[in-house]
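thought: fold this chain, then report.
action: predict
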Amino acid sequence: MKRMSDRPAGVSLRPVVEGDLDADAAWLHASVEAFEPRLRELERRGLEGRGEVAGEGAWEAGRRLGLGCGSVCRCCPPRHRFLDLDRWWGDGRRRDAHALARRLERAVEAGEPIVLGAAADPYGGDAAHRARTRRLLAALRDVEGAELRLATATPIVLCDLDLLVELDATSSLLFEMVVPTADPDLARRLEPGAPGAAERFGALREIAAEGIAASLRVAPVLPGLSDGVERLRPLVAAAAAAGAVDAVASVLRLPWRARRRFFAWLATEAPELVAEYRRLYRFRRALPRQRVEEVLAGFEMLRLEHGFPRALPGRS
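observation:
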């Protein structure tokens, strides 16, 4: 029987990696002490502090590069219908608590997975967005037997760890931490101002320590920039060290409305790849399956090398 561990009043991010790691992953040893005071302040105030941890520009960049796009590659679970709870609740229609409860009950009865973070980060917005996410999680406590998935790219999720523990006691919860790259320089250019990988893996470790099924999602994988065995190895190794039960990856999807800004970014960051990307994504938003398999071949090898997927201790 799971129980919530004895935790201090504030959230503590432990070091990400214990023991020796590949030299390429040494950057993951970066201390999180500088981030912890900010997270404590966020926890006390109950909001993100717009721009203090992840500036709006960072999350905008993440959205336009397909972060948490909800696409399904061969490393992801099979394609199926699911309830994108954040989108359903925020689609502009007037919905009350009773409508939410009925929708959740129907999802459980139909065996429909309930997802937060399929298209947009539930913790990537302002204080109002963060508060809405907590309200949705609280509503889920009243629905037993649900299949839940929560995906985010920020350790601010630890502010709701108490709710996640309660939800995991009555439903099947899978938590996914999104990390796009193990290269700190590329990460700063890709997500300026966003929390670093060390902070994210610290949150992954915290959540896994509570007995919750926690997984790494490498997204978006950028062909020629963040793919390949040597680029992906530090991420998969860190996920294994943090107690993750799995590691999955999604190759970049490029919606039509995002193409102009993406190619402007690429022309600045990697001009030598512009022609190749225009060829790859010409007349399409996602790469063909064969090309996706080629891009993720090294990741699949690393996944097997580190024993993923793993059974959650104490569960069949």
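thought: worth noting. Strands lie at 83-84, 114-116, 147-152, 172-178, 213-221, 246-251.
final: tokens above.
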